[in-house]
Specification:
single chain, mainly alpha, globular, disordered C terminus
């Protein structure tokens, strides 16, 4: 759970790094450079550590397709949703809805139980996410239904990505599972960089931001997330991941000088409370989980 929390906090730095990027950097290139650099970094590391790429022979093709689809689908749906319907609504839906989608996918595909305690903790955390994001918005919030639809699609893709990593992690170590997923996604991310204006990456400031996006917001946290998924339910991982907007808002206040309203602060407290409710849920379900593992073994 701690590893997933750390991963979410790393992801929460993405918005601040994007704000510090050179002016005029297209949002889609920000998402694409994260994928391309993280794939290169992780493939290089795993190749050196394993003295080759023999681990590719153990890759589960279906899990790889699921992971890459979720990873790239989230990047493009999320950034487009933010452009159409605004940062507040887009973030609230895409991040806030992901625990519900992950819970449903985990239950249907991985046969993970959905407990009342999980429903309570997730509801509290989602309410906190809503207050945190909307409490910091200025002016009237308008809905663009195309953007809303893309934000829900981003939430679905975000959960699908985790499902792919979790399934890939049954045959590969966490870092290798992440490397093959992000490495395969390079095939989608690289054309975006070539087709759109990516000149900002080659300035000194842009190069630093690009590397930070690739390593600190993708390669490193994705590995932590994949390792954490081996130990906990998919549903719980995405409830914990609501720490991402919490981190983003704190950084925007500290680094960018944006002030948090009382409503946003209350939302931050609810996210923290929702995450704290999860360990009690896990402890109570250990017996049923062991029984479930026995049934799977049979």
């Amino acid at each position: 759970m701690i590893l997933v929390l750390l991963a979410s906090m790393c992801w929460g730095t993405t918005g601040t790094l994007q704000a510090l990027a050179p002016a005029g950097a297209p949002p889609l290139t920000v998402g694409a450079i994260r994928i391309v650099l993280s794939g290169i970094i992780l493939l290089a590391w795993c190749g050196w550590k394993n003295r080759g790429f023999g681990f590719f022979r153990r890759v589960k093709p279906v899990a790889l397709l699921i992971g890459v689809t979720g990873l790239m689908g989230f990047q493009f749906a999320f950034f487009t949703a933010l452009k159409l319907t605004g940062v507040s609504i887009g973030t609230m839906i895409a991040i806030g809805a992901s625990p519900i989608v992950a819970g449903a996918l985990g239950s249907l595909v991985e046969r993970e139980p959905l407990s009342p305690r999980w429903a309570l903790s997730t509801s509290v955390a989602i309410l906190g996410c809503t207050l945190l994001v909307l409490g910091g918005s200025s002016g009237n919030v308008s809905l663009h239904w195309g953007g809303v639809g893309l934000a829900f699609l981003a939430a679905f893709c975000y959960a699908v990505m985790g499902l792919g990593l979790k399934q890939q992690g049954t045959v590969l170590p966490a870092t290798e599972a992440t490397a093959v997923t992000t490495g395969a996604a390079i095939a989608v991310g690289l054309p975006v960089l070539l087709l759109l204006d990516s000149s900002w990456i080659f300035s000194p400031r842009g190069a630093v931001i690009a590397f930070s996006l690739g390593f600190a917001t993708m390669a490193f946290p994705m590995s932590l997330f994949a390792f954490g998924l081996k130990k906990i339910f998919l549903r719980d991982a995405y409830t914990i991941s609501l720490a991402e907007p919490l981190t983003a808002c704190i950084l925007s206040a500290v680094v960018l000088g944006e002030r948090l309203s009382a409503v946003s602060l209350a939302g931050a407290g609810l996210i923290f409370l929702g995450i704290l409710l999860l360990p009690a849920s896990e402890e109570k379900e250990n017996g049923s989980d062991s029984a479930g593992d026995t049934c799977k073994g049979e």
